[in-house]
Amino acid sequence: MSYQTALATLTEYFTAFNAGNTDAMEALLSETFEHHVNEGEIRRGAAAFREFNAHMSECYAENLTDVVVMVNGDGTRGAAEFIVNGTYLRTDEGLPPATGQTYRLPAGTFFTLEDGKIARVSTYYNLSDWIAQVS
Staple partner for 92: which of 38, 59, 68, 113, CB 3.0–4.6 Å? Predict the structure, then answer.
C-alpha cells in the first residue's frame, strides 16, 4: 500500500467515525482484522468489531476533533492523535452510571495496513481521566 493510499484509507476511517457510519468503517477492514482496545480482550474479525460498534453507539455519542493522521513511508503503519468529544448515553457495564454526562478526552490510535485494508486498530486513552469526568 502506498503512503497516499494509506493516508486516504485512515482519513476515510475517521470521516466515517464522525459521520456515525460504522458500515463504512467496517468496509475498510481486512479479513484478518484485530481490534486492540485500551482495556479488555483483543477482538478478532469484522463481526466482533461490528458488535463493539453497536454497543458503543448505544452507550456513547462521540465526535473526534483535532484529528492528525500520520503514515509511515511504505503505507503499512499509521497513527492518529485526536480529541474525543462525547456524551455518555447509557450505563456501560462496570462503569459509572450514565446521566448524559459530557466528556473531552485526548486519545490516540495505531494502525497496521495490509493489502489496502486496515488489519489492526489499537486505541489508547486515559480511562481514569474519563471516569473522573463522568463521575
Answer: 59
78, 69 contact by CB (below 8 A): yes
Helix (H, G, I), strand (E, B) or coil at 71: strand
User: How many domains does the structure of the chain reveal?
Assistant: 1
CATH number of the domain to which 107 belongs:
3.10.450.50
> Within 13 Å, how many C-alpha atoms sit on residue 116's CB side?
1
Indicate the pTM of the whole model: 0.93
What is the domain range of residue 24? 3-134
* Residues 51-59, mean pLDDT to the nearest whole number: 96
Question: Can you tell me the distance from the alpha carbon of 99 to that of 91, in angstroms, rounded to the nearest whole number?
Answer: 8
Amino acid at position 61, single letter: A
For residue 103, is pLDDT > 90? yes
